[in-house]
Amino acid sequence: MSEINEINDIINNINPSQKIPQKASKLGLYLIGITGGIATAISVICIPFVSPAFRKICLPYVPATSQQIRNVLQALEGRTGSLIDLGSGDGRIVFATAKAGFKAHGIELNPWLVWYSRLKALITSSSLQTKFIKQNLWNYNLKKYDNVVLFGVDQMMKDVEIKFIKELQEDAVIIACRFPLPTISEIKTIGEGVDTVWIYKISKSLK
């Protein structure tokens, strides 16, 4: 309101011979208000997508390809139990693994992606097999999960490996996509290039 009052003062102080017609001035104020509202709305929507770039470790939203999903499912063959996808995005890994028989959870910091995934779960009648959690993955304990999937970035792999060793139970399996863990030896590798997945198992010797 203060901005609008300031604009009104400016208009009222204009020389009468130069004064803007009242209808035009009101239209201008409305346009300013509408433009400001649109800019604010865009900012609010974009913040959850842009803000990861300002964090120490960035986990951007890059949807898994069909081949990556197939490789993850192949890596999980013979496995059962609970599963969590760290940085679940639009939920495609969670839905695919739930369909394969896992009790699948996804953790995601972006609220828009969390609500999208929850809505999709409701529409596809997958709510009983899936759960989407809005939280920072670094603050979420993983000890109850038998299987973990991560589409990570290079700069986070050292820290997340420490988290895995500390929190996961013996025999838990980790499926790392795009980047491998730095020190644990993989038990198997599937695919190549950006579609590569590395399979790890938490052993007693790591504890």
Automatic annotation (TrEMBL):
InterPro entries named among the record's database cross-references: FAM173A/B, SAM-dependent_MTases_sf
One function term, GO molecular function aspect: protein-lysine N-methyltransferase activity
Keywords, ordered alphabetically: Membrane, Methyltransferase, S-adenosyl-L-methionine, Transferase, Transmembrane, Transmembrane helix
Domain of life: Eukaryota
GO BP terms in the entry: methylation; regulation of mitochondrial ATP synthesis coupled proton transport
Cellular component, GO annotation: mitochondrion
Gene3D superfamilies: Vaccinia Virus protein VP39
SUPFAM superfamilies: S-adenosyl-L-methionine-dependent methyltransferases
Record-annotated membrane-spanning stretches: 27-50
Ribonucleoprotein listed as a keyword: no
PANTHER family according to UniProt: FI06469P, METHYLTRANSFERASE DOMAIN-CONTAINING PROTEIN
Family membership noted in the UniProt record: Belongs to the ANT/ATPSC lysine N-methyltransferase family.
Protein name: ATP synthase subunit C lysine N-methyltransferase
Species of origin: Bombus vosnesenskii
Lineage: Eukaryota, Metazoa, Ecdysozoa, Arthropoda, Hexapoda
